[in-house]
Amino acid sequence: MTFVESLSINQLAEGVKACEDNFIRHVEDAEILIQRHRYLGAFNSLRLALDELGKSELLKTAAELENGDCDGWEKLWNGFTNHKEKQKAIESIISSKSNANELGDIVKFLLNYREAFAYVDYNEKDRKFVNPLDIPLHIQESMSKNEHDITKKLAEIFFPCGVNSISDIEWILWDIKLRSP
After folding, report:
1. Predicted confidence (pLDDT) per residue in 89-124, tens digit
2. DSSP assignment, residue 65?
3. CA 170, 171, 174: angle at the middle one, nearest 5?
């Protein structure tokens, strides 16, 4: 991607709010899906929620960039659509916590298994298609509920004042302004 555009503090705050609102939506969707025993869908919804957390954090760190820093802005925009960069953004927040290693390992595990729970794949060794629906139901349930618990813990880390606090655009602006040069 060669799109390089710098954003104002207000634009960054709007983007952060949109990502965080979408994070909440995905978590709420997953809760409904878990109640309906639709575990693969819940797992995937929670994966999307994690992506939104990563994007939110990337936008917050963008406040540290100068307007003319084309390389920095290009890196931000490339990271915005890159799973590994969003994962790194999540891990940077987790690393400051007392149980960082445990949380980080679990998040890596969940992010690495997104493919198995989302897509039909082909196993060349066995010469068979692998369908997520073939994953035993008890494993689907366990993975979905574990990811839900982890996502809730991450919400506590990212939103220490509670998820309702993220609806306040002024708080987001304040947070981003603290990071700006």
Report:
1. 877 777 766 566 766 666 666 666 666 677 787 888
2. S
3. 85
Residue pLDDT, tens place only, 63-98: 777 767 778 888 888 888 887 888 788 777 777 665
Cα dist. 89→57, 64, 85, 135, 177 in Å?
A: 6, 14, 6, 30, 18
Q: Which of 165, 149, 173 has the alpha carbon at shortest distance from 8?
A: 173
CA distance 2 to 138: 44
DSSP string of 79-145?
HHT-HHHHHHHHHHHHTTSTTHHHHHHHHHHHHHTHHHHH--EEETTTTEEE-GGGS-HHHHHHHHH
| DSSP secondary structure code for residue 40 in this structure | H
Say whether 38 sits in a helix, a strand or coil.
coil
Task: Give the number of other Cβ atoms within 10 Å of residue 55's Cβ.
Answer: 24
Nearest alpha carbon to residue 67 among 156, 181, 149, 147: 181
167: tokens are 């609806």
The rounded distance, in Å, linking the Cα atoms of 127 and 95 is: 41
The residues with which 129 forms a beta bridge, in sequence order, are: 122
Q: Rounded to an integer, what distance in angstroms lies between the CA atom of residue 9 and that of residue 13?
A: 6
